[in-house]
């Protein structure tokens, strides 16, 4: 009878390239969901819509600051070499697709200020820090003048 104490029995398997976490999102499935483009005054509305979409499509982990992307390289300590992690390659491809999709949900003037941001998390965080407090203050300012029906 084989021993149950082999090293492979106690290790956890890393995500594979077949993992749904790293499947490349299909833009044709996501584009019809974009009913609003982010401008300088509608961040809270845009964010609410985008969060719903990201969560429903299992894509929120790309923008979630608490989740770390897979390592870009895998080290082999026995041969002192490093190779590109295939899981990272899949993650990067899916993330680039999500960056494209996020940018499609922005007006031209907002797109101009996210030029150079490379990951969906960078784009998301920049938009959040740039617009969340501005839009909350705008809403607070408008609240007394709103009439509830």
Automatic annotation (TrEMBL):
Region (Disordered): 1-23
Compositionally biased spans, kind Low complexity: 1-21
Pfam entry (one): Retrotran_gag_2
Top-level division of the source organism's lineage: Eukaryota
This protein's name: Uncharacterized protein
């Amino acid at each position: 009878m084989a021993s149950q104490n082999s090293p492979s029995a106690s290790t956890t398997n890393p995500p594979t390239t077949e993992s749904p976490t790293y499947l490349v999102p299909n833009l044709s499935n996501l584009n019809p969901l974009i009913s609003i483009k982010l401008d300088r005054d509608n961040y809270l509305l845009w964010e609410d819509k985008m969060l719903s979409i990201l969560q429903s499509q299992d894509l929120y982990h790309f923008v979630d600051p608490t989740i770390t992307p897979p390592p870009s390289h895998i080290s082999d300590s026995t041969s002192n070499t490093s190779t590109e992690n295939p899981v990272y390659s899949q993650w990067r491809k899916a993330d680039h697709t999500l960056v494209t999709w996020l940018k499609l949900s922005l007006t031209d003037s907002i797109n101009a200020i996210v030029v150079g941001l490379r990951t969906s998390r960078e784009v998301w965080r920049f938009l959040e820090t740039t617009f969340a407090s501005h839009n909350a203050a705008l809403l607070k300012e408008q609240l007394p003048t709103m009439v509830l029906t």
